[in-house]
Amino acid sequence: MERKERVFNPKAKEPFAVSRSKIDLFCQCPRCFYLDQRLGVGRPSWPAFTLNIAVDALLKKEFDLHRTNGEPHPLMSHYGIKAVPFSHPRMKEWRENFVGLRFLHPLTNLVIFGAVDDIWVTEDKILVVVDYKATSTSAKIDLNDKWKEAYKRQMEIYQWLLRHQEDLKKDGYRVSPKGFFVYANAKKDEKAFDGKLEFKVEIIPYLGDDSWVEKKIIEMKECLLAEKIPEPASDCEYCVYRSDAKKYEK
């Protein structure tokens, strides 16, 4: 594994960029975050979820058609959501990986950023954060699984970032605490594959609370400044693996 070139330098004056996913990494395990962002030793990488990426891209194209026409997607109307896909000159930028919504947190000198899937807007200029998800399950889709806590944090960080966009505030926009997950669920009960997947698409509301984000950013900066590697999270399987491997290596 190669050491990352871009790591936090405590002596540097320029802002240090931290992505939404790295904030989530800190929430999962401060030790893994420190190893990654301070020492350049990241967790083993996963292969790309290419089918999920394809669904994401197609959903964006589909909602963009209605964005251009200034009308709600039929799915939004079906769920009684009185909004339309938000049309804004910076929408492409906000969706772009490694660019996204950005905010320089003045207290910590950290640039927090994350690429949002979509934003909807109501008639009274309320912005709604939307995230696309793809899965294949026969179970009822909800947000109750423990591993979906990361999805909720993701939504709340996007809401926090959107609330800190000065140009939107000046134009009178506000951000709703309610966001939506657009879930595409691939069916497995079709008679044949025939070279295509059929999806059932649902919209699941989520009432976010981003009050934790500010405190977590401050804690994250304190972690980065520390000269001692933090203790691992009790449930971090990566740290357990490293610890157990060291015992046998000795």
- Major beta-sheet overview: 6 strands, mixed
* Annotation, overall tally of beta strands: 9
Radius of gyration: 20 Å
Q: Poorly predicted ranges (pLDDT <50, ≥5 residues)?
A: none
How much strand content do the residues show?
Answer: 15-25%
SSE order: EHHHHEHEEEEHHEEEHH
Q: So how many helices? A: 9
SS class: alpha/beta
Oligomer: single chain
Shape: globular
Mean pLDDT: 94
Q: How far apart are the termini?
A: 22 Å
Work out the helicity level.
25-40%
Describe the structure in your own words.
The chain is of the alpha/beta class. It has a domain of 170 residues. Helices cover 38% and strands 20% of the residues. Strands 2, 5, 6, 7, 8 and 9 form a 6-stranded mixed beta sheet that branches. It has a 3-stranded mixed beta sheet with strand order 1-4-3. Helix 1 crosses helix 2. The chain is globular and about 60 Å long. The mean pLDDT is 94.
For this entry, give a set of tags.
alpha/beta; three-stranded mixed sheet; 20% strand; 250 residues; 38% helix; six-stranded mixed sheet
